[in-house]
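I had to read the description of the data format several times before I understood it. In essence, backbone conformation is discretised, so a fold becomes a row of integers matching the chain in length. I therefore recommend that a typical entry be quoted early in the introduction. For illustration, here is how one protein appears when written out as sequence plus structure tokens.

***
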Amino acid sequence: MAPRDRAATGTGLADGAQALTGQLGKTIQRLRKAYNLSLSDLAEQSGVAKSIISQIERNETNPTLATIWRLSQALDMSVERVLASSDDAPFVEKLSRADTPILLSEDGLVKLSIIGWIKTVEWLQYYDVHAQPGGELDSEGHQRGSVECLTVLSGALEVEVADVTETVKEGETLRYRCDRRHVIRNAGSAPAHALMVCLLKAAVLD
């Protein structure tokens, strides 16, 4: 069942990733030139290979979250701003599966479809999450006070925040502070599907 599902969604995944990478590549190139940086300069500052940066700018590769984070740090921009679209969007917007931007975890086993409005990513992020067995999404902390809400639709996921680890099963929701390193992993033997909402500018929690 799982291999057939992956094959069926392969085209949508590739197209969605390409949609994100096209905008991302333009943004990275624009920021790099604004800082008067060569590809070699940005590669040295970010730790990302020059060839990879070149491929991103030419829309020839789908970068991982870790790569986007390294580039955003080198360009002194938040990941949210780097991913945000600079084009005006209509009031009513419908995205097909192929048009939905896709992010992949470092290991390629966790897929996040950005189903929230791209222009709200600085304070509200909404993702459709599919995690294959053994997949792990390791994230840096967001702004202080940020809260993430994870609702598991099928399967089960583990969430690790600081020294606390919780298992979230089908039908359950876990809310947790994400202003510190947090890890979502599928430690089971079956694929997991979840919805994740991240409130990035929530009030600071006591």
Remarks:
- The beta strands are 102-104, 110-114, 124-131, 136-139, 147-154, 156-161, 164-169, 173-177, 182-185, 192-199.
- The chain has five helices and ten strands.
- The longest helix spans residues 2-34.
- The chain has two domains: 2-83, 105-199.
